[in-house]
User: Fold this.
Amino acid sequence: MEARIRVRVELVSGGRVVLDEELARLLVLVDRLGSLLAASKALHIPYSRAWEKIASAEKAAGGKLIEARRGGPKGGGARLTGLARRLLARYLAEYRRIVGAPLIVGEAAEPPEVGVYAGSSDYAVARLVGLLRERGVAAEAYWLGSARGVAALVLGEADIAGLHVHVPGGNAGYLRSLGLGGEVALVRGYERLQGFLSRSPMTLEDIMRGLLEGRLRLVNRNRGSGTRMLLDALLGEWASRLGVAGGPRRVRGYGFEASTHSEVAEAVAKGDADVGLAVKAAAALHGLSFTSVAWERFDFAVRAGSLGEGFVGDFLEALGSREFRRILDSLEGYRAPGDMGRVEPLSDIR
Assistant:
């Protein structure tokens, strides 16, 4: 058997990894291509994982590593911050000193032009993307969660961001709070029913008591997702009502994260968790019990300058089509308002 010595080089701060080989390569390619999406594709890293690595590194480093730049192929793009450049330069120098050779990154070509949806996981969006592909429109969907979907839109990585945030002012209020009033328009989407999935019927009080008292195991959603925002609000409200101290993080399984509603349903169905918050369609598709929590608005954010153009125009036309309304009718826990597909600048929304 041939044995080799492998050296692992990491830049660490406060016991947390700031940079490793994979993230260093990712940052080099972001700098070269001006796109986190293109860099992740070049390295064959799932886009959601690239976001997770960036977010984790930013928390360890105490600052932003990538930021939006102007003038990219979709009205923006990603570039390294000064902090990222300093950390990357130090990492590459130490890597060369320790390993005795430079870090090999390789060349990467610009990806082909494809329409990109990024944002919240959703069954109807998946069907809508499928409908676009049937019409000959090149489209991809990345389940990043509401907050990261909007970030991808701002970076120019996405054409459409799907969001359902549970904050004062709802989806429009969230976008305004980010200072996007002049850049982004909100497209009226549809409504969907959120609730708890379980293997046997339970009341909402049974579930909240079970979670807060440690008797039930949770499968959570990823950070930045609207579903996680809703869950945190519920846990805080019920902890106060029941007089339970400690907050959401005392819940068993709070750190067990799933990226999609289907993954939540699968974890509950397999017994890896007792309950998880997801849309009603996930319960129906996996044969699980469902305890209703709330109907919510699921809307879309687009750059104001892209309205009616290319992929955005194709997406909005499909969103308002009779064919898509029939798709919504076929999914449990979805309903289409009469004004679905209406586009409004944030400044016009009260």
About this structure: The CA atoms of residues 113 and 138 lie 8 Å apart. The chain has three domains: 11-99, 115-190+297-348, 194-295. The longest strand covers residues 184-198. The chain has a mean pLDDT of 89.
